[in-house]
Amino acid sequence: MNMNKTFVFMVLALFLVSVLPLALAQDDNTTTTDDNETVSHDDNETQTEDVEQEDESEVAIMHTPKGAQVRLLQLQKSIEHNILKGQEIVAKILEKNESANVSNLNAILGEMTLLVEEVKSLDINVSNATSNELAQTYVQIKSDARSLAKDFRDEARTYFKDDEQKRLREELKEKYKEQLKDLQEKIKELKKNYNSERLSLYMQRTGIKDSAILERLQNGDKISDIRKDLAESFKSMTSEERKEAALKVKEEKVKMSIFKKDSVEKLKEKFEEKRLEREQNRVQKLEEKGFKMDERREQMQQKADERQQKMQERNKNQKGGSK
Questions:
Q1: Dist CA 256 CA 14 (whole Å)
Q2: Contact criterion met (CB below 8 Å) for 23 and 227
Q3: Among 174, 213, 168, 176, which Cα is nearest to 195's?
Q4: Domain boundaries, the chain
Q5: Predicted TM-score (pTM) of this structure
Q6: Helix axes 65-96, 128-156, angle to 10 degrees
Q7: Model confidence pLDDT, tens digit, residues 188-206
């Protein structure tokens, strides 16, 4: 009897975690990229330029059009937020010193703008065969955005003393919420739609017929309450029904896991090569628009050389460790 109860609770836990893959994290009204911005000028944010574990987790929901749209809008909002902050920082630098050379900072902001345009141009209504490519492009853009934010922050901080940097961060922290309100509302609505779509799918596959649960999610009820209702529906099933439901949920989790792995592993194969190509394309586009890009080109080359050196050292260490 105790073993049977243990099995029920194990399957129930799998069911509840799997059924709500994006957010039944909607309670705090945050997302991975909104809560801890994808790109930030803040000093306390750790920045890396390769594919991060967070990126791998985020692409899982992009195997559906609604999931892809959520992620892309989150990314767009995050980059636009940093453009707004960056523009104000440049203005404050020029207030301090009218003759300050901010051409490189403006070039970086120009690159961020190109990333926003790229996000907007992506087609979310893709087939299963190309949804992997969409997920890969998302990770590439996000990685580029992180790198650009770090470049901007590293250069901009040289114009401000420590106490000025602190005041500026506080001043800009909440400043642009109103300007980004429309995007935030779209994201909120899309998250609700995505969660409803996924919950409906899982309920169909597992035989839960309580339509009131789905309606409550669509109406914005507390996720904790919806979880309880799902748990009760699940526990009311027979042992065989629970086993069947668990198998179907597991199948869906495996599909999402395979999609995530395929998307990221293929991207990692030639990540550095693709990054350099993307950087050069942005430089060319901005030069055509009249941006001064000489300093930016030098900066990119220096960073590329540093990355190459790190990769060589890493490969050397790996070979040494395998002996």
A1: 14
A2: no
A3: 213
A4: 2-267
A5: 0.83
A6: 20
A7: 999 888 888 888 888 888 8
